User: Fold this.
Amino acid sequence: MFESRSPCRSAARSVLLLAFILTPELSAQETPTERGAASDVVRKMAAIQKTLDVPSLVSRLTSANPVRDAIAARAKELMDTELLKMADDITHHPEIGFKEERSVRILTDYLKAHDFDVTMGGAGLSTAFVAKYRKGTPGPNLGVILEYDALRGTKGDFHGDQHSAQGPTGMAAGIAVAEYLTRSKTPGTVTFYGTPGEEMMPPPAKTVMHEAGIFNEADVIVRSHSSTSTQRAAHGFGSCCLNIDGVKYVFSGAPAHQMTPWEGRDALTAAIHLFNNIDAMRRNMRPETRIQGIITEGGKAPNVVPDRAVADFYIRYPDQVYLTQVREMVDNAARAAALATGTQVKIEPYGTARDGIAVATLDEVAFAYLKKYGGTKVQDEPGKPQGYEETGSVSRAIPGVGFSAHTSNGGFHTYEMEADALGPVGHQGFVVDAQAMASLLYDFATRADYRAMVKQEFASTRALFSDYVGALDKAYPRPVVKAP
Assistant:
């Protein structure tokens, strides 16, 4: 779900990054419009950071601690002896979203063997699961998201985003901490959430699970994900891959022989017109807009005028406010394409991704641990704000953090990234993620003061979201178009 940038755009982003370095409070949001229109919200978020004194927190938590380091060592042992092999096995047997039966069986069998009770089919999703530590006690509930779906590729399904390793990595960390809780009689428990179909929005599995209340008991949630560098998000509101509307445009025409096409109405031509209309409108859209589509149906035979065509689009923008304008323009482009070709169009929205919340008290501690345990290709400055999971629904409701150690020299969604999952760069990064994740979970489980700081930052930031959206509402005026 990532997209390349042009050299000019990359240079512009480098200039913006320099501005972030010079004025750290401005890193709270992604675009100049967001930072300018919501400057009051940005200042309030900066004040929260100043009050919390996150650098001092990081220094205290990551200082010498043999108990924590032993837990991290246990996570590494699990990876080295068993779970890297499991990750490789899942990589060699890719399964796309909602069809991950083999992968789920491997993960849940391992969890059952390590004192976890597994419930399958959460929220009506057959390959979703929840695994609860059967030796857990009342106390902090440490949630760990596990993913396992592969990408759909033209050469076959493949793990070009390394989801094959997310389950084993998360299990190593969670099991190491669960064992410590029992051994030390520390109050608390661990819950694993098996979340299918991350790469397939219809339906967005985490949102469906969230709406069913599956994550409600978690006090914090962690997640590992592949990365081209060791990095972390800036605090604030955002998403890894922009706010998204997933929409299908279904065109209906009338069939005819291609030798007498005037006797029919060509739905495929309508779909092609939609793409042309969107390309024509791009100059009137803000430059951060991303619109990506494919034609999934376009006829069955070249000698029959296609009476049905379907175009599937992801419509993206950094915030949900201007996204509504972009979506309206694309919907109208589809209506215009149908009108121009004498066809009909049905607009079928099927999924969304929205801003989540990134909290510095989690992201900065996680980043410090990633570096401590040997993360390579370190990106020192924080990236854009983004929730720890891509839908925005869970990360706006429950505090959490994504761990992103360097695991590939290839790009996201590539065969190179899949190959790296099986090699030294991937294996090293997965082990780093497991150790860092275990360390942060240990801190959260054993320090009430840390839990209080995370809760304070998350609640204070979350309370500002409606003000943020309200400010952006005023930043995107619609042009007045008069009748001729």
